[in-house]
Amino acid sequence: xxxxxxxxxxxxxxDGFEFYExxxxxxxxxxxxxxFADIDALIQNAGVHRKVFGYHRLLSxxxxxxxxxxxxxxxxxxxxxxxxxxxPKWIRRKL
Length: 95
Known about the structure:
95 residues
């Protein structure tokens, strides 16, 4: 399985990095390492996650974030990486 991180998801990851880096120096790097490890797991596990708002949703192991992705022709396209603490209506509009 191939995994492609779309520009919208890259922007979400950058936003998360900035938020956690403001909390404590180095925490942003740990955030990215953790989320990329979760995304890398899609190589083996893509498609097993339940669908929410029309996308498969992978919950991060260490942060309150969800990775939203779709499957097409043997490729997982990561559409968004969003904070689960946001209003579900906001998440639906974002997707």
